[in-house]
Design brief:
about 575 residues; binds flavin-adenine dinucleotide; Flavocytochrome C3, Chain A, domain 1; globular; 8-stranded mixed β-sheet; alpha/beta; Methane Monooxygenase Hydroxylase, Chain G, domain 1
Length: about 575
């Protein structure tokens, strides 16, 4: 039994987890981080394109213009207090990253270089496209993560690597730790803390083709759901327009920023008709829907007309290798092509999840309008909600880094949460997990259940949705849930038990999938990343709000936090 009680326990060691661990340690708190994979295998290392900040190094910029674009991409349901905080803190975040050694690409004058990314404008949308994304070649997340990890280690943060969080320890709406599985040593044990931060990342692995790491199984949603917490804005799943067809490997927006064009089977640059102003650099939902429409209308390429082409052939091999090395490597490894002389077959893939665990502006987790004391959520696991119905490219790294400061500030301001260990509560949860082992008749194939879930979601709850498809998906996913309830984990060893890990992850994916479907059914309109064939228009009078999906799948509206008058308003 773990005796030590930490000031802060962080579940997850991606960019959000590591960065909040650093801030906590710098404020003299005792900090522990648990992670189901090694920190440097967390999904954030895969972030390629960059991180937004209105530095104005190439042309003038302003955090208010950045906030305007963020709110616009969120289609009216981003919480404005969060947006204002994030955009305003961006330049300082970049300074802090440079201070810990992150090397951004530079201009000849020594200032940080900045790229144009989709949906980013100047002068409240009236000016030119904004140069706002700071980048480290196309390995921005990788470079940031290595420096964050080194810094956290130097500050004495305690890492529990290969520890899998199974359940939150909560009593009387007071969180005092987590029950976890030590995958390496084969033990199940509690870790106690005065404050717990969930930073477990997103849930896009509920789809068959996703650009995210296999670890993004929405475990935070599972933890929250088992604690009776509703999930917010789950219908908003961002599909990245350009992933390698069939396998979902990302071709970052930086390619389009470097002038890549999208072509259909007739060689037409179709974005000219879908978005004459922004073309390939329109927001992701617009480009993804355009590609999906081309494919749906039979204008896709290949024998099955299932992809369109991304043309980077205006660039030399040397340029791509120097500036977009990950794209070059991925084209070589997965397609055996050189993108400077052959076009890339691409199709949209699930990429980022705007929904998750509902928090207030201070990152405190909210259950039935009440704060759970000592429990916080940040990063892609959380719905803070800074992205609303659609996230702008390069705003997520900024989100995870800025809110990892906010969460520690908020812990410092809260009255201390000295909840005592509740051993009876721990034992009850332990018994529940022991019940998952046993014999089963072999009729249920766990991995088949997982791939069926992913296929159902991709086929019915993708870029385009309809009531008929969503109802069908709900029924099919409920069948999977029933089968999983009958399933017993046959291998009772606890060390590196892959069957157990697959089982727990599927248990966590199901509430995310069902909440995504339920919220998509409830939102009888189209907004941002959520598009209904049967309700193609936005309906502000009924749906300019968040959705909140309870554990029994009833969905209610939750108000958007608006600031009035908001400073980024053109007229203010
Ligand atoms: C291919 C790709 C490229 C991207 N590029 C960019 C970009 O250029 N710019 C940008 O702004 N955004 C980008 N994004 C989005 C961005 O990378 C993510 O939103 C962000 O990295 C999420 O960080 P996080 O810390 O919240 O989660 P993650 O990095 O996913 O970390 C989650 C952590 O939680 C741990 N964990 C999960 N479940 C458990 C559990 N049950 N128990 C213990 N530990 C657990 C994991 O081990 C991991 O350490 C990209 C996304 C993708 C898919």
């Amino acid at each position: 039994m773990q005796k030590k009680k930490y000031d802060v326990l962080i579940i997850g060691s991606g960019g959000a987890g590591l960065s909040s661990a650093i801030t906590a340690a710098q404020n003299n708190m005792s900090v522990a981080v648990i992670s189901k994979v090694h920190p440097l295998k967390s999904h954030t290392v895969a972030a390629q394109g960059g991180i937004n900040a209105s530095l104005g190094n190439i042309s003038s910029d302003d955090w208010r213009w950045h906030a305007h674009d963020t709110i616009k991409a969120g289609r009216g349901i981003a919480d404005e207090d969060s947006v204002r905080y994030m955009c305003q803190s961006a330049p300082n975040i970049i300074k802090k990253l440079e201070k810990i050694g992150v090397e951004f690409d530079k201009l000849e004058n020594g200032k940080i270089n900045q790229k144009i990314y989709g949906g980013q404008s100047t002068n409240f949308g009236d000016g030119d496209l904004a140069h706002r994304a700071c980048f480290s070649k196309d390995r921005t997340g990788y470079n940031i993560m290595h420096k964050l990890y080194k810094k956290a280690m130097s500050l004495g943060v305690k890492f529990y690597n290969y520890y899998f969080a199974l359940d939150l320890l909560i009593e009387n709406e007071n969180c005092y730790g987590t029950l976890c599985w030590d995958i390496d040593k084969g033990k199940i044990l509690p870790i106690f803390a005065n404050n717990i931060i969930i930073a477990t990342g997103g849930y896009s692995q509920i789809y068959a083709t996703a650009t995210s790491a296999a670890t993004c199984t929405g475990d935070g949603n599972g933890l929250a759901n088992r604690a009776g917490i509703s999930l917010q804005d789950m219908e908003f799943v961002q599909f990245h327009p350009t992933a390698i067809s069939r396998i979902g490997v990302l071709i970052t927006e930086a390619a389009r920023s470097a002038g890549a064009k999208l072509l259909n089977r007739d060689g037409d640059q179709f974005m000219l008709s879908y978005s004459p102003q922004f073309k390939e650099l329109a927001t992701r939902d617009v480009v993804a829907r355009a590609i999906a429409t081309e494919i749906m209308m039979g204008r896709g390429c290949g024998d099955n007309k299932e992809y369109v082409l991304l043309d980077l052939t205006h660039l030399s091999a040397k340029y791509i290798q120097d500036h977009l090395p990950t794209i070059f490597e991925n084209c070589q490894s997965f397609l055996k092509i050189d993108p400077s002389n052959k076009m890339i077959p691409i199709a949209p893939a699930a990429h980022y999840t705007m929904g998750g665990i509902p928090t207030n502006f201070n990152c405190q987790v909210v259950k039935n309008s009440k704060i759970i004391k000592g429990l916080y959520a940040i990063g892609e696991a959380a719905c803070t909600s800074v992205h609303g119905a659609g996230r702008l490219g390069c705003n997520s790294l900024l989100d995870i880094l800025s809110f990892s400061e906010k969460v520690i500030e908020s812990i410092q301001k809260s009255s201390p949460n000295y909840m005592e260990f509740n051993l009876a509560g721990v034992e009850k949860l332990l018994n529940r997990w022991q019940g998952v082992f046993g014999k089963h008749d072999g009729s249920i194939d766990l991995l088949k259940l997982k791939s069926n879930l992913q296929t159902i979601m991709s086929q019915n709850v993708g870029i385009f949705r309809s009531e008929k498809q969503l109802l069908k998906a709900f029924e099919l996913v409920s069948d999977i849930e029933k089968s999983l309830k009958k399933y017993k984990v046959t291998d009772s060893a606890l060390e590196w038990n892959i069957e157990l890990q697959n089982y727990i992850e599927l248990c966590n994916m199901l509430p995310s999938a069902k909440a995504t479907i339920s919220a998509a059914l409830w939102r009888k309109e189209s907004r941002g990343a959520h598009w209904r064939f049967d309700y193609p228009l936005s309906n502000d009078s009924d749906f300019l709000c968040h959705s909140l999906c309870s554990t029994n799948h009833t969905v209610n509206k939750n108000d958007v936090r608006k600031i009035s008058p908001f400073h980024c308003d053109k007229k203010a």
